[in-house]
Amino acid sequence: MQAKYRLRNVCCLFVVTVQGLVGANVVCSDDQILGGHTGSTTGLDWHPDGQLLACGCFDKTIGIWDVKTGKRQRTLSGHTAYVYCVAWNRDGTRLASASYDRTVRVWETKTGREIHKYVGHTAPVLGVVWSPDGAKVASASLDKSVRVWDTSKGRNLRVLRGHTHYVISVDWSPDGKQLASGGFDNTVKLWDPRTGEETRTLKGHTGAIEMVSWSRDGTRLASGGRDLTAIAWLLPEGKQVHVFKGHKRRIESVSWRRDGLQLATGSQDGTVKVWDVVTARTLYTLTGHEKPVRGVAWSPDGRVLASGSDDHTIRLWDMSRRDQGQK
Prior knowledge:
- The protein is an all-beta fold.
- It has 1 helix and 28 strands.
- It has a 4-stranded antiparallel beta sheet with strand order 1-28-27-26.
- It is globular, with a radius of gyration of 18 Å.
- The relative contact order is 0.14.
């Protein structure tokens, strides 16, 4: 079976039941491959209801996939360069996208219509996230800044400056009171989005940081970077809880499982790893992508893990069945 085809209920796959093995690579018959993009699939985000998956792509489009059928429901076009990151608002009615064309765009989910284009960054935009209340969007750029936008009026509210190199990723805390950003200056910075004040700098990485992500309960922050490691930080103390080591090349993306007990990382080495957050041990190493993995994202219910890659595919990994195999 060639990797370019979508796998669903295919009899030539087999299910391996693994008991008590750490780092197991379990092949599940319900894993799927979504193909059709003509460029690297990068930023991924699940619709809040878990039925749709949005993907930014280097072919300048955004794909919205129905994960139940494995079919692309809609393609959003308008960006004039790579789309690096996508993010749904809390109720799933709007989708934001960040692009190398230096813009942030907001789309109406139901119609696919572009309703806002935010212009202000002077270099490619690689990160975008909604505030929990949906009133604002934050974006991270290679111009070394984070910008906060008013989504109702489409205007720039403030510019957060403090990083001394590219800013690649930004995430909003679940309570809406803090922003976190990761930069090529090897630091994670925390900000008060209301004032634009930098409140803390977290140091520990020895290479550029590719992604930051808050846990659902807001007590921890994960960062992954070019030093081949991911770090879990305890907040508000800013203390390192664990350093996750095992990838052979840089980590491009990180994603918390809903329960906060597992962390997924995607790497340039072509693998996805799932870590036990309590012990920092590898639970699974997921192989199958033929090129570097750019993005990872857990489904809202924590049953499926999605990954996007330079091989132009999205893979959906059935993690609930793997967990059953570990019992």
